[in-house]
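User: Fold this, then the next.

Assistant: Folding the first:
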Amino acid sequence: MQIDLPEVLAEIKREFARYEQALIVNDMATLNALFWLDDRVLRLGTAENLYGHAGIAGFRAARPAAAAQRQIGRVQITSYGRDCAHTCVEFERDGRAGRQTQTWLRLPEGWRIVAAHVSLLS
């Protein structure tokens, strides 16, 4: 297996930037599209455990429509072969430090997040 193929890293960096921009402007259509449309996708958040695409989309729809302004710190992206990648992000929002991880898979419809975790540090 080849780790960190330059062309795969470039693809994931573009998708991650797309995700981040959608998060900042609260573009729910793009955020929902970037998650795998499957009951096995999951997102473990700061106060919620979401299973399945419908659960994640429902959570986003029920949140206030305010944009999620945050300052990004360290970002680490690693790809594994041509079809799997992982992102780790440290961020700060509202004076609190947090972290986010995402597992991305290349599926027939494109790169999709299949698992995500967001947490805040105490």
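Now the next one, as you asked:
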Amino acid sequence: MPIAVYILGLSVFALGTSEFMLSGLLPPIADDMNVSIPQAGLLISAFAIGMVIGAPLLAVATLRLPRKTTLVALISVFGVGQVAGALAPTYEILFASRVISAFACAGFWAVGASVAIAMVPMNSRARAMAVMIGGLSIANVLGVPAGAFLGDHLGWRSAFWAVGLASAVALVGVVTLVPRIPLPAERPRLKRELSIYGDRQVWLAIVFTALAAGGVFAAFSYLAPLLTDVAGMDKSWVPSVLGLFGLGALIGTAVGGRIADAHLFGVLLSGITASTVFLVALALFAENAVVTVVLAFLLGVSAFFTAPALNARMFNVAGAAPTLAGATTTAAFNLGNTGGPWLGGTVIDEGFGYAATAWAGAGMTIVALALVAISLRLHGTSRVIASSTPTDTRQPARAEA
């Protein structure tokens, strides 16, 4: 695996910490900004909305620009967004800073994913994505709990300053260690890239990716108040439990990335099924602190076990447009990260309580599971298809002549 792929994973650590650290900061942000916890939860959705919109827009806008220059510019803008969030005097300005940061984050993910895929053999796509997603997992293990710890002891703004520093370190890594990626001999054509959206398998992948991610984050986004208000745990335990979720995510990414290239649909079906079971169990046993902590870890495993396969599936069915494939996957994940917290917040506002967010999440993952089964049934009939060899999930996708 090229060193540049690991540098991209390191950069994703900073991006992922910013994206998910609000799960442990909602109560202090809500208090400081004089808003409700569901309103503070919309800051998570704001970031996700920025990712959804920003990924395809920036992928198209930078289609013919040098890859390294694009990565440097985007990580720089992201860092500035963190500083703006740390200084934000009002909820509205904080909300805007989250959207701007998300645009830069989305662009980096989309371009970085296409760069990572381009630098590895075709049968290592899921492993390359697992390295990048590993940065996200480590963010959940270290970054998110550290953000919650800083928020508890030094105020929530200190977490934003810390991420700004981490993004500066990532910038140095990209500038010094990511090589210049030559543009392809044939200039990318927007019309050809956009043609992937005529394929039903691409749309199936978008929807089941969004639902699989959203189901988990419908509950995870409100894990801090669930732990304190439902399970009865002291708030000092929140960073440790968030770290346990991240440890599960790291394990899930490592295992899923190893086997997804050879058993893509097996990983998708088993991982989403496991997430559904764990969410139902969380809804039923949320008042039991020990069970809730164990389920937080298991949800991290199951959610990130499927992540490399979800990424690889999109590149397999949209291989004719690698840049937009990466952007589309990013947008799909963040459709889920938008819809999940929104649905969870709606459930809370309707008076069903924090535990009910897990029921809502389980409903999303059940639908995702059904769509994966449909995609498997239709496998090989797509207008954008993979090689017909028995291990076709490891082969490049080719457009029909």
